[in-house]
Give the backbone structure.
Amino acid sequence: MPIYEYYCGACHKRSSFLLLRVSEEIDPYCKACGSKDVKKLISRVSVPKSEEKRMESLLDPSKFSGLDENDPRSVERVMRKMGRELGDELGEGFEESMEEALNEPQSTPEKDF
Ligand SMILES: [Zn+2]
């Protein structure tokens, strides 16, 4: 479930909108003052540029010791460990996309890794 954050140009407060579906349209406004002068902030699900290097080091094969890629539980354990090391910034979105990935059939071709 994506969370969109908007920054209010009038009162400089943030408003968060939780979307039930990615395709859902929202009409953003400031929840503090009602202004429509709001600017979308980067989704907290996305990984900042500075995190990319960190991601690379997390994908170091030595981190995957004991990983049996045919065992979804084993994969999940490693993914959760990675998620913890990355801290809260990836948050729920990370866990969610991870769970979606794990729920997909095993025949899914490798892409991101
Ligand atoms: Zn406002």
In short: The longest strand covers residues 3-8. The mean pLDDT is 74. The helical segments are 49-58, 72-86, 91-103. The chain has two domains: 3-41, 49-103.
